[in-house]
Amino acid sequence: MATPSMEDYIEQIYMQLEARGEARVSDVAEALSVLPSSVTKMAQRLDREGYVIYERYRGLELTEKGLTFGKKLVRRHELLEQFLRIIGVEEKNIYQDVEGIEHHLSWNAMDRITDLVEAMKEDDGFVQRLKERQSF
């Protein structure tokens, strides 16, 4: 089972691979505000756990397991952002709020939030009524 820290690294590696086609230790370190040596240690751990292919002096690659999990982590983050926007959380707070809660929700809770976000997006009137309530 991945720890919150492992999840952050996998998510960041996945996002860099999607955006640039490569994930370098230095770029992951910069994005996560950690030392490159920390990324190397975590990459070695993720390699042992079967999420990453780590070879010294090469970019980081995700295994099939890592790709699948990385995609799931990015989707979780996006869904939580959508949910917070829909319920009217101020944009300046959304990223920090998501970072604060994403690792503390079960996947079952995420499934229910996904259902709720989808239902709210389908019901245009719901979002409008919610916005009207917030203006008071």
> Main beta sheet: strand number and arrangement?
2 strands, antiparallel
Structural class by sheet pairing and helices: mainly alpha
Strand order of the largest sheet: 1-2
Oligomer description: single chain
SSE string = HHHEEHHHH
Q: In total, how many beta strands? A: 2
Distance between the ends: 44 Å
Q: What is the residue-mean pLDDT, rounded to a whole number?
A: 91
The total of helices stands at 7
Low-confidence sequence ranges: none
Roughly what fraction of the amino acids lie in strands? under 5%
Rg over CA atoms, rounded to whole Å, is 17 Å
Helicity level, as a percent range? over 70%
Q: What's the shape?
A: elongated
In short:
It contains seven helices and two strands; from the N terminus they run H-H-H-E-E-H-H-H-H.
Would you write up a description of this structure?
- The chain is mainly alpha-helical.
- The chain has helices spanning 4-20, 25-32, 36-49, 64-86, 91-101, 107-122, 124-134; strands at 52-53, 61-62.
- Helices cover 74% and strands 3% of the residues.
- The protein has a two-stranded antiparallel ribbon with strand order 1-2.
- Strand 1 and strand 2 (61-62) form a beta hairpin.
- The longest helix is centred in the middle third of the chain and has 23 residues, at 64-86.
- The model has no long low-confidence stretch (mean pLDDT 91).
